Amino acid sequence: MLKISFSDNKIEAGCDEAGRGCLAGPVFAAAVILPKKFQNELLNDSKKLTHRQRTLLRPEIEKQAVAWAVASVDNEKIDEINILNASILAMHLSIDKLSTKPQMLLIDGNRFKPYKQIPYKCFVKGDGTYLSIAAASVLAKTHRDEYMEKIHHEFPVYDWIKNKGYPTQSHKRAITSHGISPYHRKSFRLSEQLKINFD
């Protein structure tokens, strides 16, 4: 059973990202503030859930959350500032959009940069520990998947509707055969491995 909170008396926002390891598309992040008495036995790290479970959870989280927000950073910005900084920026942008100001940030992972004057705590595998981070992981993942399914129709050869931009064998073969799209991340090392000229 995941924990509802890290502190007893502070308004906490859980934060997580999705799409960090992808070859194409933005990185998405979500910030979620849950009620102190929130309960959901299904909610867990989004990577441990099926597509159907995430789809069921998303409207429940969005309906029951005290506040929630999703933001993204596109592939061009990822190339400019690197994926770690882009992931943190996406988290900052999602926190910016919250209608309720958090007093504490619970961050999935081990790296973060201070956001204004709000204290934060990083948790490795936090999305499998705290409900608010798990909720953020579900929203980030489902909103990103929805975006990748939308842009799939612009460039169907990459099969983003299935791989969502992750480095599957079919995705890599498509890049080798067709080159890259405007949504691909030029800074990722796969370009060297596949010997693709991005210029």
SSE order and pairing:
Elements: E1 12-18, E2 27-33, H1 51-64, E3 67-73, H2 75-81, H3 83-96, E4 104-108, E5 120-123, H4 131-152, H5 160-163, H6 169-178, H7 190-193
Parallel strand pairs: 1-4, 4-5
Antiparallel strand pairs: 1-2, 2-3
Helix pairs in contact: 1-4, 2-3
What does this entry show, briefly?
Helices cover 38% and strands 15% of the residues. By secondary structure, the chain is α/β, with parallel strands linked by helices.
Would you mind describing this structure in some detail?
- The protein has 199 residues and is an alpha/beta fold.
- Helix content is 38%, strand content 15%.
- It has a single domain, classed as Ribonuclease H-like superfamily/Ribonuclease H (Nucleotidyltransferase, domain 5), CATH 3.30.420.
- The protein contains seven helices and five strands.
- Strands 3-2-1-4-5 form a five-stranded mixed sheet, sandwiched between helices.
- The model has no long low-confidence stretch (mean pLDDT 93).
What brief labels describe this structure?
199 residues, alpha/beta, Nucleotidyltransferase, domain 5
